[in-house]
Write a structure and sequence with these properties.
- This protein is mainly alpha-helical.
- The protein is built from twelve helices and no strands.
- 75% of the residues lie in helices and 0% in strands.
- The longest helix has 35 residues.
Length: 252
């Protein structure tokens, strides 16, 4: 594979995994399950669940790790969420939710066992220094069945990419609000808890493109250190296909 083909495969795999997990995270069914698990505010279930692998941390520490969320909002959700089941319990609930979503909506997808196996090769080969959420989630026990395991592995790889991206963003001098506005606009920025007015970041557009390039470059280094060209192409192809299956299966 050429460098361009490697970069494309890395981007395709990352985008597919990211979108699959976004469907899970934002789906009303997931919010309903969180409420059913005792989290009156499903966003508190999300923050405590995703951040639960950090252990008994403060809301301030968790908001720092989440990076692109409004800190006061994140800390409040964390405090509310961990009051229900604790940090460890919240992480276990969220992990099981991911597994259940995969079992239900990856049904019929091609190569789920290969997605899991190839993704696990990347996880096993990738150090976790400076990547706290990835460090926590990579130690969680994976489900035995292919559909659940594939989505859990995708989730861990999503946290890996997010950690790499957050590091590049932090050193760039671009604020989270500017990054959100450049990436997704006003409604997208509001979703992360930020209040108006929003700086549009238009003067940092080129710098934001550099952040994306740096993230993709580092992820290409990580992926190619663990996978051969054919394996990387296979992971990208199967991840794109699994996302298509999930979107077809998930009710609108």
């Amino acid at each position: 594979m050429s460098h361009a083909e490697v970069d494309q495969s890395v981007r395709d795999a990352g985008a597919a995994m990211g979108e699959a997990l976004s469907v899970f995270m934002l789906h009303p069914e997931t919010f309903g399950e969180s409420i059913g698990a005792g989290y009156a505010n499903p966003l508190a279930g999300y923050v405590a669940g995703r951040g639960g692998v950090l252990g008994d941390a403060t809301g301030t520490a968790v908001s720092s790790v989440f990076t692109v969320f409004e800190p006061t909002f994140t800390a409040a959700c964390w405090d509310e969420g961990v009051a229900v089941r604790g940090a460890k319990g919240a992480a276990e609930v969220y992990w099981n939710q991911i597994a259940g979503f995969g079992r239900k909506y990856f049904a019929g997808a091609e190569g789920l066992d290969r997605i899991a196996a190839l993704g696990e090769k990347v996880i096993a080969a990738t150090p976790d220094g400076g990547l706290p959420l990835y460090a926590g989630w990579r130690t969680m026990p994976l489900a035995d069945d292919a559909a659940a395991r594939a989505l859990q592995v995708m989730f861990v790889l999503r946290e890996l990419r997010a950690g790499v991206h957050f590091g590049a963003l932090t050193t760039s001098g671009i604020t989270p609000v500017e990054a959100h506005m450049l990436h997704g606009g006003k409604e997208y920025t509001q979703m992360f808890g930020w209040p108006e007015p929003f700086a549009d970041g238009v003067d940092k557009k080129d710098r934001y493109a550099e952040v994306e390039t740096a993230t993709n470059r580092r992820m290409a280094e990580i992926m190619t250190a663990a996978l051969g060209p054919d394996e990387l192409d296979e992971l990208a192809r199967l991840s794109v296909g699994a996302l298509a299956t999930l979107k077809a299966n998930v009710p609108g």
